[in-house]
CDP-diacylglycerol--serine O-phosphatidyltransferase (Roseibium alexandrii), 290 residues
Amino acid sequence: MIEDTGPTPVKTKRQPRFRKVPLRLIVPNMVTLLALCSGLTAVRMAFEGRWEFAVGAVLIAAVLDGLDGRVARLMKGTSKFGAELDSLADFVNFGVVPALMLYIWILNEAGSLGWISALIFAICAALRLARFNVALDDPDKPAWASKFFTGVPAPAGALTVLLPLYFDFLGLFPHWFADSAVVAAYTIAIAFLLISRLPTFSGKNFGTRVRRDYVLPLFVFAVLIVALTASYPFRMLAGGSVLYLLSIPFSWQQHRKLVLADTGKSIDEDGDESDTDLDNIADRDKDHGS
C-alpha cells in the first residue's frame, strides 16, 4: 500500500544574494566620492602647510560637485542614495574643510573666538544644505525660481570664505585685514550669508541652450578660464570671490523684479512699487478734499 504524502512541494527559484547595480548608478556616486577625497586631502595639505595644494583641492571638489549631478541626470542615474551622499560630501567639503583650513592658518591665533567662528561657519553650511534639500520638494515654486539660490550656496561660500588666504598669498593682505579677529568676523559674515534669505544667481540654467554661433567662442572662453586658473590660481580665485560678492545686490534686484512681476506689480523710477505711488496720490487727494 502506497502512503499519500500530500502534494509535491514546488521548488522556487533561488534569488541571487547580491543584485547587480547598473553602472549608470555607480558613476555619479564615484564622482561624489572623488570630490570627498579631494576635500579631505585639502585638510592634510593644510596641516602640512602646502596651501596652494589645499586651495586647489577645494577647487577640484567644487568642480566635481558641479559635475556629479549633471552626470547623474545625463546617465539617468539619479537616486535617493546619491542625493544623500552628495549632501553629506558637500557638508564635509564646503563646511568642515574651509573652517579647518582657516583655523589652521590664522584663526587659532584668535583663541576661542577663532574656533567659534570656524564652528559657526561649519554649522551654517549644514543648515544651508538641509534647507536646500527641503526646498527641492516644494511644488509651489514658480518656474523662474530655479534661476536663484536662497542664500549663498555651499561651494561658493567655501571658496569665498578663503578670500583672506588668497590675499595673503598675493601679498595684497591689507594691514587691517591681517588681524585674526577680523578674519574671524569675516568668516562669521560669510556663514550668515549661507543661511540668509538673500537670492543669489544659481547658474543652473546657464548653458542649457547655446546659440550655434556662440559655441566656438564659448569653448575658447572656457579654455581661457581654465588656463588662467591653473596659471594664476590665487589671482583668479580672489577676483572671482570679489566679483561674486559684488553680484549679490544685482541678484537681489533681479529677484525682486521677478517677484513683483509675478504678483502683478512693477518698480518705478524711485525704486519702490508703482502701486504705492497710486495709494499716495489717492491719500493726498482725499486730504485736499476734506
